[in-house]
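RECORD TYPE: inverse folding
INPUT: structure tokens
STRUCTURE:
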């Protein structure tokens, strides 16, 4: 049942009943901190509201947390730390069906093997070794401009990495700016190189959440179902209702289930 088919009073009642569950997963998907105290506070909340309340088993919550990384990878270490808290406190020894990326990252960070890592390290090398991607991640415009002025800079380069959502091709620099909400780097690429706004730019802007970037993307392309997918993943109900009301895009209930967005599901 989507929120366009339900009475507002009933929706508000259901949301109120499930508020703690909704807020807990929103805190995970919208995580924007590396601060130890903040992470401890988030952990206490999810432990109380999800594990202690029997709404989610510890191993399942570890998987849920690690699955978020490709959609908010700037805070990879924070997600790994939250997963480690659960593994330590609840003596989790087996986590099924987690991505190879998460297995590799957890092993690198804590020396704990949750599965086989295969050749993940090789696929992360372009991201780890090229400073331009880190500059975009942090919206460091000074470093970004300096890199673009170096001899041999390729404005059309693309990144292929497990750290980002699955894609049949690599991501352009402008698309990475949209993903990270790196508005200063985005504006520079548009002004200096006239970098093309793609459908993927608009999709990823719903993850990055920067209103200036989203507004610019909407001038060049119209939202479609993939935008709704990323709006759901963002756990930003305003994005979801915007796409429903302005573009009549349906809410995919399977995406709501897969990404634990109960608020949009209601």
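DESIGNED SEQUENCE:
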């Amino acid at each position: 049942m989507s929120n366009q088919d339900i009475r507002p009073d009933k929706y508000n009642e259901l949301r109120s009943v499930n508020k703690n569950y909704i807020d807990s997963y929103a805190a995970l998907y919208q995580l924007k901190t590396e601060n130890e105290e903040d992470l401890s506070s988030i952990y206490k909340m999810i432990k109380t509201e999800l594990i202690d309340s029997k709404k989610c088993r510890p191993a399942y919550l570890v998987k849920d947390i690690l699955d978020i990384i490709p959609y908010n990878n700037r805070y990879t270490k924070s997600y790994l730390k939250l997963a480690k808290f659960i593994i330590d406190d609840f003596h989790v020894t087996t986590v099924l069906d987690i991505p190879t990326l998460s297995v590799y990252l957890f092993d690198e960070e804590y020396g704990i093997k949750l599965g086989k890592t295969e050749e993940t390290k090789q696929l992360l090398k372009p991201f780890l070794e090229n400073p331009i991607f880190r500059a975009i991640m942090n919206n460091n415009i000074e470093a970004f401009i300096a890199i673009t002025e170096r001899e041999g800079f390729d404005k059309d380069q693309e990144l292929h990495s497990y750290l980002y959502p699955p894609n049949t091709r690599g991501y352009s620099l402008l698309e990475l700016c949209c993903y990270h909400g790196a508005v200063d780097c985005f504006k520079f690429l548009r002004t200096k190189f006239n970098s093309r706004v793609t459908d993927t730019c608009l999709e990823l802007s719903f993850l990055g959440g920067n209103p200036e970037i989203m507004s610019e993307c909407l001038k060049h392309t119209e939202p479609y179902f993939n935008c709704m997918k990323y709006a759901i993943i963002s756990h930003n109900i305003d994005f979801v209702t915007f796409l429903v009301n302005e573009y009549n895009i349906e809410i995919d209930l399977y995406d709501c289930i897969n990404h634990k967005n109960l608020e949009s599901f209601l």
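NOTES: The CA atoms of residues 160 and 169 lie 7 Å apart.
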